[in-house]
Write the structure tokens for this entry.
Amino acid sequence: MGLAITALAVSIGVGVWQWAVSRELRELVRELEERGAVVAKDTTAVVNGPAAGLAPASAVEVAKLREEIERLSARTQAVARLAVKNSEGAVLLNLRPAGAWKNSGRGSPASAIETLLWAADGGDVEALASSILLDDEAKARAQAILDRLPEAARLNYGTPEKLIALLMARDADIRAMQVLSESRNENEALVNVRVQKGDGKTKDEGYAFRQVGDAWRLVIPGKAVDKYGKKLTEPPKKGG
């Protein structure tokens, strides 16, 4: 319903503008006609026909005005069609702020992404660790990072999943989000999400999920683990 209303509003807005400008041009034509010009669509006919008593420049001006009206009508109709088409294909901005997120479970990819972002924003490492899935390569790389840490740190992080979850929560920087679309193929899914970062900028991102039992989990590839591993020596984004 919202998209249909937007398309209608665009069409009406362009139409009103077209009508107003055309009306001004038509009033100019009528004003010249009232001064004695007999207007014909063909410029030559205007100059050589019954309007010959009117100054040639005025007759030509009348003909040009009529041509301008026709061009204006054709142009604005094309603009209106394009505007309506674009508005019908657009996704309305409807970002949900972090304060409105909740633990929606992991029964669908869309609910899983909200739960994951909710857990990351709130620093709920256990819930976040349960929301991600490390493939074999990612788990091996995460374990290698753990093995290089001091014993106290290894005990603190515990598992490869918890290590990555801690690093994800540490650098969580999404302040609002909107699920744009969800596509599934058996136990794989891609969720397209519009996110707003702490700097206020928005961007569209794709998140890959895999179904494990009844739960959908975010797939963490090996390259992402390497990226998170480097952040161990960097200051966190949260808190500046």
